[in-house]
Amino acid sequence: MSDTRITLVRGDITTQEVDAVVNAANSGLMGGGGVDGAILRAGGSAQQSARRALRDRIGSLPAGHAAASDAGDMAARWVIHVVGPVYAKGEDRSAVLASCYREALHVADELDVRTVAFPAVSAGIYGWPMASAADIAIQTVAGTPSKVDEARFVLFSDEAFSEFSRALSELQ
Ligand code: AR6
Questions:
Q1: Whose CB among 32, 33, 72, 124 lies 3.0–4.6 Å from 46's, allowing a Cys bridge?
Q2: CATH, range 5-171
Q3: Which of 3, 12, 19, 36 is catalytic?
């Protein structure tokens, strides 16, 4: 278990006062719908150029991996991009989803940040059932040692908030 405190809030991740915000990105890194589009709009052109520079440096970001760019015009200093797996009924991609959270915390440690906000990666456009997304997210963050003091899950819907609350309560 890690010493990182896990907190849950119902709200919009783009307005969180944290050091880094995790983005449920796609491999191309240049934006999309859902939380990715919202984070890009909030970060403005400064974040857009930072994303372009990141993409020029690393090419595409594979599922399960994480990489940071400057957040631009947001309260947060950094955006840590992760690419979640697309949910597939016939194939267990849980390890790839868990890897998103582990790798995001690893990048947070490299950036030396203390507060990180996470969305429910893969649980929107990528179709992951919320209950399972919550279990994987909470168990992985709780089981990953890092220097991060607070991992804050920012949940956009009542369903997300209630499933993450359940998953957190089942940890103890
Ligand atoms: N704050 C917090 N959570 C949010 C916000 C917000 N502002 N907006 C949406 N969510 P999704 P994915 C929730 O679809 O499933 C993009 O096009 C949302 O309700 O953003 O990993 C990317 O470019 C859901 O619970 O991410 C990729 O192509 C959760 O965030 C693809 O979507 C994740 O939903 C990634 O799909």
A1: 72
A2: 3.40.220.10
A3: 36
Does residue 36 have an active-site annotation?
Answer: yes
3-state secondary structure of 139: helix
The structure tokens 């969305």 sit at 119
Residues near ligand 1 (Cβ within 6 A)? 12-14, 24-26, 32-36, 38, 84, 119-126, 154, 156-157, 160
For residue 128, which atom of ligand 1 is closest to its CA?
A: 15
CB-based contact 27:100 (threshold 8 Å): no
126-149 residue pLDDT tens: 999 999 999 999 999 999 999 999
Per-residue pLDDT of 77-131, as tens digits, reads 999 999 999 999 999 999 999 999 999 999 999 999 999 999 999 999 999 999 9
Axis crossing angle, helix 158-169 with helix 130-142, rounded to the nearest 10: 40
Cα 4 to middle of ligand 1, angstroms: 24
For the record, the structure tokens of 167 come out as 């998953």
- The domains of the chain are located at 5-171
pTM beyond 0.90: yes
SS3 content of the chain, % helix, strand, coil (to 5): 40, 20, 40
